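SAMPLE LOG
Freezer: B-3
Tube label: C17
Construct: single chain, 169 aa
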Amino acid sequence: MTEPEEYTDELPEDLDAAGYVGPYVFPDNNRRRIPGYLYLLTAAACIAVWAIAGDDAVLVNDGILIVGIVLALVGGYHLLAGFDLEVDERDALVEASRAVGFPVGHASAQMGWRGLRSRPTWRILLYSAEEPPEQRGFVLVDGVDGAIVDTLVEGNPEDWSDLDGKLTA
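STRUCTURE (predicted):
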C-alpha cells in the first residue's frame, strides 16, 4: 500500500513555467470569437429545429426557441468583446514609463478588462529607479490602441528605513 506522503501534486509539463526560457506571449482576446461563432451556430440550429418542428412536436417546444435566443445573445456578446490585443506588455510598459515622468526601475504589468465589452487594459505598476524607490506610479494602458486611460503618480509611502540598500533585512 502506498503511503499518503508519497503522493505529490505537480503541474503538467506544458504548464510549468519554471524551466521556460524566452518571452511570454499573452493570449489574444480575439479568441473569444471562437465560442461566439459556436454559440451563434448552435442558436441557429435551435431556432431552425423549433421552426421546422411545428406546434405538434413532442420533443421540441418553446424552450428550444428560448435557448436559441439566449445563445444568440451570448454569441453576439462574445463577438463584440473579442477585441484584438494590439499592444503587448512591453509596449504598454514603454507608454506607462512616458506617462509617469520619472526614470523607471522595477515595473510590473497585469492584464485586466474594463467596461461592459471587456476592453483589454494593461495595469502597470512602476517604481522609480532609486534604491529604495522614492516614487511609484500606476498607469492603465489600453490594450487595443495603446492610449493612456488613467495615471496615478505619488511619492512612495512604503517605509523601508529598516532595510539596507539591497532591500534585505
